[in-house]
Write a structure and sequence with these properties.
322 residues, globular
């Protein structure tokens, strides 16, 4: 009996002194410690601030010059219209090309649209330039928060995504300051819109040095690349934490693929319209999976209430109040 009691107690004793601790439990404890660390790493802050420049571009684009009421309406609404058009397509492009590459494309569009507006001499040219900027806004406003959230440790994800939102307000402040400084100068409005190329070019250069998100890399089959990025994100005891997060990402992707096969059974034969099929599959997942549908309803309600409160209309009209 004494021997049996000693044998029964042995695993508990070893677990207590750490001799037989499960490797996965050890990894879990390490990642919990990382999540409770005092602040994000320098690498995380660098990529967040770099990605947040898109938000500043979003806010900085809030400029105008003396025009008729109809001209102002057309120029302003063209930006919003093309941002709306770009948003659904951006999600598909982000899955196909990667989050980082879509941000780079948005930077090119921001710079192109700003230069187009600065050089044009007609209202039609201004509308075209603003439409190009609208495409960039629609892409960046969707992908930048996604990029930050997929790279950030979960404990700091909300805080870091909020930083990108603050950049939008900061961009508006800079826009009004530039407008005030250049308002009395000849062709000052051209400088106002043309200066939008500066943060776009800056972000483009900085983003060339930043990595793709681990989640997209895993989906693309680039597991080693994802592991290297995670080691940079979790600088403390990086290997164990990186492996744990990598396993979690793989499991989530496998669950998504299994759910996708359940919701969208494979159709035999060659697909003539792969882009349309992908769009249909994504919409099916969004509308018919309970968790996704609830999140969509909440997000739409929040955005709708934000618009209905009149803040956007007020901010657009403020420069014209005498």
């Amino acid at each position: 009996m004494a021997g049996e009691d000693a044998t029964a107690e042995l695993p508990l004793m070893r677990a207590q002194d750490g001799l037989t601790e499960n490797p996965e439990a050890h990894d879990d404890r390490l990642i919990d410690e990382a999540k409770n660390s005092t602040s994000p790493s320098t690498f995380i802050w660098a990529l967040t601030l770099t990605a947040g420049i898109s938000g500043m571009l979003f806010g900085y684009d809030d400029l105008s010059r003396p025009l008729s009421t109809l001209d102002k309406s057309l120029i302003t609404s063209s930006t919003s219209l093309f941002a709306l058009i770009a948003s659904p397509a951006t999600g598909l492009l982000a899955d196909k090309l990667g989050r980082r590459n879509v941000v780079l494309i948005a930077d090119v569009l921001f710079a192109l649209g700003a230069l187009w507006q600065a050089c044009t001499a007609t209202v039609a040219g201004m509308i075209a330039g603003r439409s190009v900027v609208g495409l960039a806004i629609g892409g960046a406003s969707l992908v930048v928060p996604l990029y930050i959230s997929e790279l950030s440790p979960s404990a700091f994800r909300g805080m870091l995504v909020t930083v990108s939102i603050l950049f939008i307000t900061g961009g508006q402040v800079i826009a009004y300051a530039c407008g005030w400084l250049l308002a009395q100068k000849e062709h000052g409005w051209r400088w106002m819109v043309g200066l939008g190329t500066v943060p776009a070019v800056l972000q483009f250069g900085l983003f060339l040095m930043l990595p793709e998100t681990p989640r997209w890399l895993v989906k693309a089959g680039k597991v080693e690349g994802a592991r290297d990025v995670l080691r940079k994100v979790y600088a403390v005891t990086a290997n164990a934490i990186a492996e744990k997060v990598l396993r979690d990402i793989k499991e989530e992707i496998q669950e998504e693929e299994a759910l996708n096969k359940l919701v969208n059974p494979t159709v035999s034969g060659k697909d003539s319209w792969p882009f349309l099929t992908t769009f249909q599959r994504k919409m099916t997942e969004l509308l018919f999976v309970g968790g996704n549908r609830r999140a969509l309803i909440i997000a739409c309600m929040l955005q709708g209430l934000q618009q209905l409160c009149g803040f956007v209309s007020q901010s657009k009209s403020t420069p014209f109040i005498d």
